[in-house]
């Protein structure tokens, strides 16, 4: 028999009344009622109330105990009186009469409160993460994470995927982010890289004939922290399939994601097949390639109308290459003047001179811009912005039937160069949706498809890969040879949920000649490509099947399902925003001896302290 417990702190029920039991756990709460002492004992499974009266032989020992001490309690299960039942607790029908009490680990005090997070800084929480993880919400999030990962594994196996682990130490490659480098002791001056993703290895598994692969893969990227991205490392459900098209990849993963969100969130989930939105349409209609489809607002292009207007601020900007994006909001005409003033202040925070708008109210049109437009131009704006649909034919709140277009509402305008106009109009759409309470609940999924194969690097003026360098260009070799690179689309796609990108994926290039040409356009001479990607290039020469895949981010899925605003709330031991582990004090200095073994000599900025010897 286990000497520490006969039961855990979450399983005793009314049917156990009269039983002698042994429980062990942490002292969660302690209440002194004079001749009665109550202890809430906590373990991984729950909380059980224990009580001792002043006649109990161990009463003086219980009086001395502090919160978070670990104790073993022996006693008898009693039924609570009706007025003391706690229906919010699984053990709320019973309590334990303490007969023996043993301290297993004594604690003087703890540096943060386990019962509350309101008075604790994030720095303190991460420094004492082992204590922070005792908190009910964080503990529950990690349990949820474990259950989701187990369910993902089960679902992937059931549909024929084989779990295979790929290397952690690999070669550096240009995949879009900075690598974490690991110096080699045996090969002086050479470095391994921690994988940004198992990209090349999973493609090589397809070349090797495994057909359907997956793994819960750790990925390492030396990039800045964001609310939805943890610096350093993250985990993804990485998978790849052979002899497939884009549709096959979508059909494989959509039911898995749908079932995970439906089972663990209890909220409405958009049914599959998920909507597919071309990249260019997403940037126009939503101002983002990560649109939140809970928000019904859509963006229109009205440059042509303003180009012929007497509103010089927009007309002159259009002559210099600007575009004009408009967002129509039904019901916003009822908002007070202060609402529009706050939006103007917000626009100035975005380094804009202000925010133009027209208020439509039946036959009337007013606002700072309205007086510069003719009745026909005002009508054209109203008709275009209040009747738009997404280009895939799905209506966006209004219809193209003019008799059903709302007669009242507000149209907001952004005029700037295309890239900035897209960004600001996307932010405005998001702000209006939140401020006006337009975003519905639940989870709305979509695929963003047809990404550009290449983009222009604003810093260098050179052509870079815009997404994944191993993707198949639409049109194959003919497109690479004949088209403007910036007009080539790729078989690349992202899956997005509620404005958060869960995953990137692609149908991969499997032709070595196309691989050489694709990298040559991005500035890699053939000999460099052959050397940098030797394994994959050689593999393709020996026969590679058409293949593709995707890699939904597990951390982000858990964050959404747990309804947490920050991804660090669902990761057991996250780094802080400066990519530091405050608990383990990493990164840290290493000894001169270790550096010599690795043949490394440091050349630090003057602001850094010298390495410890």
Characteristic terms for this protein:
single chain, 613 residues, alpha+beta, 8-stranded mixed beta sheet, 5-stranded mixed barrel, 18 helices, globular
Describe this structure in words.
The protein is α+β, with helices and mostly antiparallel strands. It is built from 18 helices and 22 strands. An 8-stranded mixed beta sheet has the order 6-9-10-22-21-20-17-11, sandwiched between helices. Strands 1-2-3-5-4 form a 5-stranded mixed barrel. A 5-stranded antiparallel beta sheet has the order 12-13-16-14-15. Helix 4 runs antiparallel to helix 6 (about 245-265), helix 5 runs parallel beside helix 16 and helix 13 (about 475-480) runs parallel beside helix 14 (about 510-520). The two termini are about 50 Å apart.
């Amino acid at each position: 028999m286990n000497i520490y417990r006969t039961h855990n702190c979450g399983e005793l029920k009314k049917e156990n009344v009269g039983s002698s039991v042994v429980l062990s756990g942490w002292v969660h709460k302690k209440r002194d009622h004079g001749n009665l002492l109550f202890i809430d004992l906590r373990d991984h499974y729950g909380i059980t109330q224990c009580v001792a009266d002043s006649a109990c032989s161990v009463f003086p020992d219980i009086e001395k105990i502090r919160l978070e001490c670990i104790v073993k309690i022996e006693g008898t299960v009693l039924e609570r009186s009706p007025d003391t039942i706690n229906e919010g607790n699984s053990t709320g029908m019973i309590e334990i009469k303490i007969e023996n009490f043993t301290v297993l680990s004594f604690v003087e005090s703890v540096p943060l409160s386990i019962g509350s997070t309101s008075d604790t800084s994030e720095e303190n929480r991460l420094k004492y993460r082992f204590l922070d993880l005792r908190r009910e919400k964080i503990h529950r999030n990690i349990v949820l994470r474990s259950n989701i990962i187990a369910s993902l594994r089960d679902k992937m196996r059931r549909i024929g995927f084989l779990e295979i682990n790929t290397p952690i130490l690999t070669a550096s490659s240009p995949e879009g982010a900075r690598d974490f480098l690991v110096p080699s002791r045996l090969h002086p001056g050479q470095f391994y890289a921690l994988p940004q993703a198992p990209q090349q290895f999973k493609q090589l598994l397809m070349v090797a004939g495994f057909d359907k692969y997956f793994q819960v893969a750790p990925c390492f990227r030396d990039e800045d922290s964001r609310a939805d991205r943890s610096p350093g490392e993250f985990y993804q459900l990485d998978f790849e399939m052979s002899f497939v098209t884009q549709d096959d990849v979508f059909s494989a993963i959509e039911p898995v994601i749908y079932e995970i969100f439906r089972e663990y969130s209890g909220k409405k989930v958009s049914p599959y097949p998920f909507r597919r939105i071309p990249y260019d349409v997403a940037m126009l209609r939503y101002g983002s390639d990560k649109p939140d489809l809970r928000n019904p607002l859509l963006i229109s292009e009205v440059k042509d109308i303003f180009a012929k207007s007497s509103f010089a601020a927009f007309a002159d900007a259009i002559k210099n290459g600007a575009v004009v994006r408009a967002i129509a909001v039904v019901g916003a005409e009822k908002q007070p003047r202060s609402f529009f003033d706050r939006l103007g202040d917000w626009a100035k925070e975005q380094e804009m001179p202000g925010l133009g708008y027209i208020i439509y109210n039946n036959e009337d049109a007013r606002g700072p811009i309205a007086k510069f437009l003719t009745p026909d131009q005002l009508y054209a704006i109203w008709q275009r912005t209040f009747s738009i649909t997404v280009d895939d034919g799905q209506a966006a709140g209004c219809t193209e039937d003019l008799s059903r277009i709302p007669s009242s509402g507000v149209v907001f305008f952004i005029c700037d160069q295309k890239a900035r106009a897209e960004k600001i109009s996307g932010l405005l759409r998001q702000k209006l949706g939140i401020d006006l309470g337009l975003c519905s609940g639940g989870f709305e999924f979509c695929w963003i498809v047809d990404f550009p194969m290449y983009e222009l690097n604003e810093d260098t003026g050179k052509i870079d890969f815009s997404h994944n360098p191993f993707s198949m260009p639409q049109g194959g070799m003919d497109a690479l040879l004949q088209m403007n690179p910036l007009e080539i689309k790729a078989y690349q796609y992202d899956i997005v949920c509620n404005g958060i990108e869960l995953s990137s994926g692609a149908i991969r290039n499997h032709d070595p000649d196309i691989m050489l040409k694709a990298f040559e356009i991005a500035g890699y001479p053939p000999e460099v490509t052959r050397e940098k990607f030797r394994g994959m290039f050689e593999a393709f020469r020996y026969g590679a099947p058409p293949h593709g895949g995707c890699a939904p981010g597990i951390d982000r899925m858990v964050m959404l399902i747990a309804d947490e605003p920050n991804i660090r709330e669902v990761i057991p031991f996250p780094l802080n925003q400066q990519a530091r582990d405050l608990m383990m004090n990493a990164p840290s200095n290493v000894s001169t001896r270790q550096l010599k073994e690795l043949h490394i000599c440091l050349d630090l900025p003057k602001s850094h302290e010298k390495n410890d010897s």
